[in-house]
Amino acid sequence: xxxxxxxxxxxxxxxxxxxxxxxxxxxxxxxxxxxxxxxxxxxxxxxxxxxxxxxxxxxxxxxxxxxxxxxxxxxxxxxxxxxxxxxxxxxxxxxxxxxxxxxxxxxxxxxxxxxxxxxxxxxxxxxxxxxxxxxxxxxxxxxxxxxxxxxxxxxxxxxxxxxxxxxxxxxxxxxxxxxxxxxxxxxxxxxxxxxxxxxxxxxxxxxxxxxxxxxxxxxxxxxxxxxxxxxxxxxxxxxxxxxxxxxxxxxxxxxxxxxxxxxxxxxxxxxxxxxxxxxxxxxxxxxxxxxxxxxxxxxx
Length: 300
Prior knowledge:
Layout: H1 3-22, E1 25-36, E2 39-50, H2 54-67, H3 77-94, H4 96-106, H5 112-128, H6 130-142, H7 148-179, H8 182-185, H9 188-226, H10 247-273, H11 284-299
């Protein structure tokens, strides 16, 4: 897998990891007898844990995306799902920071303060990788006959996704304060209610973000797979040509992506009107101008 595709794959793993570590976790209560200084005590603790492994989560996500798009006749769908899932797991295994974070979630070490750590991790990573993400799409543009406006729809989405992470962070910060109040820390039912209240507030933003990420995956994978020579080189086409794509399928996927990306931006901006912070990094014209500069730099 080339560097640009690996960069995009890393983003998709992070997007999956956000939901896995934030929404697909549930409060648990555990009791055990411990002996201290010769006296037995009943020790109670509670925290948050997911219902499945992250590897299984990636396999499921990969299957859902591949099942949502049409494929060239020479690509076997079941084999493709397995190969792409294995590649994503390989990228995850090599990502020591993400792996360590999610292992703490999987091992039920997740506390309410850990939720903030999960969100901070993904927000900081998205900020740090914006230039690399832009470069990967610039490389995709140079290797294709796709229009610049088609490509910048993806970069616009990444700016909106970053703003969504900032909105999510504001909700989680407020919720973790409530979850760590003495009355919540001493009463599991209150702790659980505080967590569920946070999930209720987060769900519209996280669901919109997840839908937009899914549509971006489906469109991008369709473009790449339509130009793939084989399953083994599925994400490594030398060139991208629109003529190899079914135009009706391309239009459908592009329309769904634009709809869900616009919906995400609307929800984030509504969150801002509710008294939270939403600061777009750049205006859309400036974004397209910046992206054009990257393309020029890569071709010079």
